[in-house]
Each structure stands twice: as C-alpha cells, then as structure tokens.
Amino acid sequence: MTAISLKNLDISYGHTQITHGVTLDIAAGASFALVGESGSGKSTVLKAIAGLAPQWKGDIAVNGKPRSHGIDRGFSKMCQMVFQDPYGSLHPRKTIDTTLSEPLDIHGIGNQGKRVEETMAAVGLDRRFRFRFPHQLSGGQRQRVAIARALMLEPRILLLDEPTSALDVSVQAEILNLLKRLRREQGLTYLMVTHNLPVVSFLCDRLAVMRGGRIVEVADVAQLKAGTLVDPYSRELLAANKGHALESA
Amino acid sequence: MSALLDVKNLRVSFPTPRGPVEVVRGVSFTLGRERLGIVGESGSGKSMTGRSILKLVRAPGKVTADRLSFDGIELTAQSERQMRAIRGARISMVMQDPKFSLNPVMTIGEQIAEALLTHQTLPRSEIRARVFAMLESVRINDPERVAKLYPHEVSGGMGQRVMIAMMLIPEPDLLIADEPTSALDVSVQAQVLDIINEQIVGKGMGLILISHDLNLVASYCDRILVMYRGEVVEACKASELGQTKHPYTRGLLAAMPRIDENRDELPVLDRSAWATA
C-alpha cells in the first residue's frame, strides 16, 4: 500500500511557483528521503503535505485518501510533522506537559496523563522533565519533546524536516538512533528532508534528489552507498558530501 | 619559526548567582603560520577561545591568561584603543552567519572599502581597484555588479565570500574563522573553505578554524585541538586523527554516520566516563 502519493504537485507561494510536477509514491512502512540544496523546494513539499502551504495544484493522497486544501483532523491523526529547529518549534511559555497534551485536547482524547507519560518514555525522556519549560532542556531533549508531540496522536506517518541539522554530532547520533528504533517498534513511515547524505544512508531506504522544484532522480539507498547515482546533479551532491570525508581518510 | 600566537593558561569565566562558571579552563597552545583547527561540541568553549584572542568577550565575562601574545605583542596588556588597531588589520575573524554579520544598509562594496579605510588612507581609485581585486580573488566573477548590491540581494554562499573578502582585504596575519560554513549548504561549504584555504596558503597567514565537524577540520588544517568542557583534551596532527587515543575524540568520530553506513545503531557518547569534575 502507498502511504503517501503525490501526483503532478505544483506548489506556489503567491505568484512564485516553487515545485513543478512533483510525482512520488512512498510505500507504507518505508523511510524515504528528499535531498537537495536550499531552495530546491524539498521542505515545501513537506509543508504542502502537512497543510502548511495550502496553495497547491495536483493530488496529495495519504493512505489512499485524498487530502483537502483545508485543515483536516482525520489527516492530522494519520500524519504529523517534526521541525528542524527544536529551539523555535516549542512554545516557550508552555510546559512540556501542556505541549504534549494539546493535540489530545484538540482531538478530544482522554486519559491524557497516562498517554503523556507513555510517549515521554518512548522517546527516552525522564519523567522529571514533564513539568519543565523548554528553556530548561538541552537541544537534544527539546528535539525529543518535538518528536513526542508528533507521536501523541499515534500517527502512521512522520514528516521530518531536517530533524538533526541543528544538533551536535553526538546528540545527532542519539536522535537518529531514536528515530530508527521508533520506526521499528511502531511500524512508522518516514518522509525526511535533509541535505546530509550520510544521515540518509543511516536512516532511509529510498531517496529522491530535488533541484529547482523538480525531482531529478529517485534511487535506492544501496545506490547511494555504492556511489552509483545516475543523474549528474546527484553525483555532484554526492561528491560535495564526500569531499572532506575522503580527504581525511 | 617564532610563534605568531602564544597562548598560555587562558581562562574565561562568567559570574552567575551561584559563583563564577569557567567556560574555558586553562587552554594553552602556540600557532605559527599554519592552520590550526579547534573542534568540540556546543558549550565546549571553542568559540570563547577564539573570541578571547581578539578580546571580544564582553563584560561580565572575564578573561585571564598567563600569556596571550601575538607577534610579540602582549594582548592582555593592550587598551581597547590599541586593540582596535590590531583587530582587522593584524587579526581578523569570519563569523558564522553572513545574514547577521553584514550591515544590511550598506552596499557590499562600501563595507569592504570600510574595512580597508579603517586602517589606512588611500586614494579613491585605488580603493576601488583593491575592492574589485579582492572580490575577484574570492571567486566573484562580476565584482562591479556585486559591489553595488546590498547583503539581502546575495545568497548565503556569496555573503560568506563577501565576509571573507572583507576580512582579508587589510591583509591580516591571522584569520580566525568561527564555524564559517555551518550556515551554508554542503555543496557551497567546500567552495568557501577552498577559498579560505587558497588565501591562507597564498599569503602565508595563520588560520584558526573553529568547527564542530571533525572531518571538515581534518581536511583543511595541519593540526587539531579537541576541546571538551573548556579544556583541550587532545592535540594531534590532522593526518593522525584516525589514530587518536582519547575516548571523547573517538566517540565523536564514531557517532558520525558515514555515506556507506551499515551499522544498525550509532554509538553514543558516554559522558560519565571521562567527566573532569
């Protein structure tokens, strides 16, 4: 079954068209990466799926159901997003408990205390953090909160927008391990945006390379590892990523 | 070769309600006309080390050092006025993010010229020629057009090249680059670092490259200092990074995913093992 299916997706901000005919099928349970440089439209694709960029033409279907242009509660239960910067994506004046219970409030789900504790345990956050504020946590802990918030409604699909690029390498390793474990335990589907190819090779099984709002290549991660990407631009990206790793080896 | 920069027992502390917190705890190193990399995580004190060399740590932060001498000048004894003659002209610094470090209401040409004019007086035609030549040397192909642009009209990579041009036009002896590429795309990073490298080697300057990326530092520097919690835990040649002994350095290297990643789980640092009180 396809978890996310995009057909001829044209997304615009005002008069500027950002993506041109993006067509993509992501199987349920897959971990898919969108890579490309800044301005290639990769984050915009995620935003359109999440409903944050409502000005689009084409088809977006999630778990077989077409997505509307408006706010869609049924959709939110299926698909949630984790943002890049854990310093900016949590409300500074709400405790972790409030942040995590909010989605439950909106959807009228009960037994909140137990659910909050369970999700915090799942992302490896100690119970003592429950009534703290974001500024009392480190960057890695905040990103765990952001992931926990996305998991509160027990979605099947997570949209990840550069989930580790604001973090130190040692903390990045912890978050990547967490994402990998959650996917294994809960059978989630990931659609991740990143420009870090080594992260793709650790966490994902397929990837699409974007440039100037178009998908130039869809490949298996095995091709990435073996360095056999076909499109000249993908190869350029690979070379830039390998650049300093090779010189130091 | 006499040392360009000699730092001995550098300490930086900030007062807090619970007493002073030392963020740099007794760092010592010497630097010739070579490329030195300082690596560490957030909060390891690497940026503070860079800033204290230029005496840019603001009150209430306190900097002390047994010796902080640059080319025979003892920096700790310099007045603020004397420091201004050194900053830019002798030691300059490239900051992390061009978006926040360039003046948004001055054109690029004016800003670069300002860096030059602060330290010397030159006829206008010569300034123009030097600004254009400098822009060209950081691989900006049409300097005449770019000099007229404002910072918001250029991309991040070009902004960073403008910063580098501005920092290098007074021909300093030492360049401190604090995370010069972490706000940039991977594809542009290599290009910016190549430009820095080319300028440093070409002019025989000293470079301190501050970064959290071990591989990046290893490929652009001669020597590496690894910092953890305000102390230098390891110093080695860049080429010998693979044979490092310290568990912290090894942990950092192992935690990084590789492009041909096959590990099921990435090793995570166990901080309790080498905590230094």
From TrEMBL, chain A:
What CDD domains does the record point to? Answer: ABC_NikE_OppD_transporters (cd03257)
SUPFAM superfamilies linked = P-loop containing nucleoside triphosphate hydrolases
Q: Which GO terms describe its molecular function?
A: ATP binding; ATP hydrolysis activity
Instruction: Specify the signal sequence span.
Output: none
Give the GO terms filed under biological process for this record: transmembrane transport
| Stretches of the chain forming a coiled coil according to its record | none
Q: Where in the numbering of this chain does the ABC transporter domain appear?
A: 4-237
Keywords, in A-Z order: ATP-binding, Nucleotide-binding, Transport
Belongs to which family? Answer: Belongs to the ABC transporter superfamily.
Protein name according to UniProt: ATP-binding cassette domain-containing protein
Automatic annotation (TrEMBL), chain B:
What is this entry's stated membrane topology? Peripheral membrane protein
Look up the record and report any one GO term of the cellular component aspect: plasma membrane
Q: Per UniProt, what is one GO molecular function of this protein? A: ATP hydrolysis activity
Protein source organism: Shinella kummerowiae
Protein name, entry field: ATP-binding cassette domain-containing protein
Organism classification:
Bacteria, Pseudomonadati, Pseudomonadota, Alphaproteobacteria, Hyphomicrobiales
The record's listing under InterPro entries reads: AAA+_ATPase, ABC_Ni/Peptide_Import, ABC_transporter-like_ATP-bd, P-loop_NTPase
Q: Which Pfam families match?
A: ABC_tran (PF00005)
Q: Which UniProt keywords apply?
A: ATP-binding, Cell membrane, Membrane, Nucleotide-binding, Transport
* PANTHER family from the UniProt entry: DIPEPTIDE TRANSPORT ATP-BINDING PROTEIN DPPD, OLIGOPEPTIDE TRANSPORT ATP-BINDING PROTEIN APPD
Compartments, as annotated in UniProt: Cell inner membrane
Q: Where is the signal peptide?
A: none
Question: Which protein family is named in the record?
Answer: Belongs to the ABC transporter superfamily.
Q: Which GO terms describe its biological process?
A: transmembrane transport
Respond yes or no to whether keyword Cell membrane is given for this record.
Answer: yes
- List each copy of the ABC transporter domain by range: 5-254
